[in-house]
């Protein structure tokens, strides 16, 4: 009969190996993305680099897009954390500038933007914890910024949460236009500020 004290260790070992394999797959994908971009990511290349079987990949991720969503979501969380750590913006122009790093990342190309939109929950199609959670955190952060500016440069006649949700919707619109417009020389946050001023500005 096995020593009962060994059972927890025996249970932990497979779980640890699974976590290590998952980390290898993510690291392999990140290395490929660093050189070839998200458009160059292939499951075959990921498993070859991680030195695991293709079936092992699908035991961790339903498909390539789920892996991409995890990596994108992690980076979105990092960027949003930096935004939250910085002081609140002082005006509407700065509001848009503060969103620039996150918008630039999400709209860096059509592959990333498509994954962000599909897994954000915005289309009620698919969600992932990281990306959908990030979208909720964005609204929460915008609300704190709005509170800091209400009564001076931001209107007080609309609920801050609704204003924050509008900012997010306008940001998505600005990113989409950057990717699909014939004239896409303007940066996403430059397009965004044209929406934010009439949406947020306090009446004079």
From TrEMBL:
Organism, as annotated: Yoonia phaeophyticola
Portion annotated as DNA-binding: 42-61
Entry-linked InterPro entries: Homeodomain-like_sf, HTH-type_TetR-like_transc_reg, HTH_TetR
Highest rank taxon of the organism: Bacteria
Name of the molecule in the record: TetR/AcrR family transcriptional regulator
Domain HTH tetR-type: 19-79
Alphabetized UniProt keyword annotations: DNA-binding, Transcription, Transcription regulation
PROSITE patterns noted in UniProt: HTH_TETR_2
């Amino acid at each position: 009969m096995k020593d009962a004290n060994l059972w927890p260790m025996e249970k932990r070992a497979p779980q640890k190996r699974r976590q290590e394999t998952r980390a290898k797959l993510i690291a392999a994908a990140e290395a490929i993305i660093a050189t070839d971009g998200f458009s160059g990511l292939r499951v075959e290349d990921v498993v070859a680099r991680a030195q695991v079987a293709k079936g092992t990949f699908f035991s961790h991720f339903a498909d390539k897009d789920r892996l991409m969503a995890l990596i994108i979501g992690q980076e979105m969380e990092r960027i949003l954390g930096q935004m939250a750590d910085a002081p609140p913006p002082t005006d509407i122009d700065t509001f848009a500038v503060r969103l620039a790093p996150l918008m630039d990342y999400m709209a860096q190309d059509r592959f990333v933007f498509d994954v962000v939109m599909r897994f954000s929950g915005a289309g009620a199609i698919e969600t992932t914890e990281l990306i959908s959670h990030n979208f909720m955190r964005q609204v929460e952060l915008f609300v704190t910024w709005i509170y800091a500016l209400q009564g001076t440069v931001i209107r007080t006649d609309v609920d801050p949460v609704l204003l924050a949700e509008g900012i997010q919707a306008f940001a998505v619109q600005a990113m989409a236009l950057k990717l699909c417009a014939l004239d896409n020389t303007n940066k996403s946050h430059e397009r965004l500020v044209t929406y934010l001023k009439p949406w947020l500005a306090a009446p004079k």
